[in-house]
């Protein structure tokens, strides 16, 4: 199975690294093209896979072609790949906000295309990705993309209409959580902890709580109750969070980012 990346930036390097280190495919079967030499060199150093200057050659040589350029660069790349991408390759796009219709309109509706919304924790193999099938993409194509994304985290299939909400939640979500970690650390510093200790404790607390949700399958509310002693410290903290509208703020953040994803999708 030959996998080719068009665009050898951060997300491509993370995905290629996951594919190779997990044994999904070998470095010999992976290649990438990029306009910039520095990006090609970094991809090659970090993954051991070959890089090329020609997007067309990468597409011709690959069974799976992964488009990993920025959304603004996508229309130009698709024009270039017209006639090269056919139903023989599986096309996978990770470009935020670019709808399946864009690929079908440009490359023809016989192509097999899957649109993915990954997130940056893919860089540390803790990604949360969702994908939607389009055109003539089959059940087998979906399983393949599921296995591919699972090398760098978890993956779920959704209808394309839900991908804007996915973008608002898990695509942009790491940034919300970084703000939460920074704020928890600030709280620790305010109460007298050294910064490096406060940040370490804050990050591990978020990681540990997330693992508890994923591993136990318990409702987050039940896990919260298990931390909260009657008349204790936690309920005092929770009351302060409720006064500050934490939950409403996070729900509004997901809604605002989803709305922006819808707007950006209409422009492309
Ligand atoms: N960073 C994030 O949080 C997320 C990013 N994405 C999507 O992933 C995609 C890639 O993002 P990053 O890896 O963060 O960007 P990046 O900027 O690190 O990588 C993009 C690469 O494409 C190359 N490139 C530009 N024009 C090209 C062309 N015509 N032909 C070949 N290569 C070309 C650039 O030189 C660059 O190395 C984007 O579409 C983005 O929307 C999706 C989810 C989350
Ligand atoms: O902020 C953005 O537009 C992209 C999409 C998801 C994460 N970053």
CATH architecture of the largest domain, please? 3-Layer(aba) Sandwich
Rg (C-alpha, Å): 21 Å
> Would you tell me the structural class of the helices and strands?
alpha/beta
For the termini, the CA-CA separation is 31 Å
What oligomeric assembly is this protein in? single chain
Query: What's the SSE pattern?
Result: EHEHEHEHEHEEHEHHHHHH
Uncertain segments are: none
Quick one: biggest sheet? 8 strands, mixed
Helix content: 55-70%
Query: How large a portion of the residues is in β-strands, by DSSP E?
Result: 5-15%
Give the overall silhouette: elongated
What is the helix tally?
12
Explain the overall architecture.
It contains twelve helices and eight strands. β5 (90-93), α5 (100-107) and β6 form a beta-alpha-beta unit. The protein has two domains: 3-163, 3-Layer(aba) Sandwich (Rossmann fold); 173-267, ProC C-terminal domain-like (ProC C-terminal domain-like fold). Helices cover 56% and strands 15% of the residues. With 268 residues, it is an alpha/beta fold. An eight-stranded mixed sheet has the order 3-2-1-4-5-6-7-8, with helices on both faces. The model has no long low-confidence stretch (mean pLDDT 96). It starts with a strand and ends with a helix. It is elongated, with a radius of gyration of 21 Å. The protein binds 1,4-dihydronicotinamide adenine dinucleotide and (2S)-3,4-dihydro-2H-pyrrole-2-carboxylic acid (A1CAB). 1,4-dihydronicotinamide adenine dinucleotide is lined by residues 6-12, 33-36, 39, 55, 68-71, 73, 76-77, 94-96, 117-120, 171.
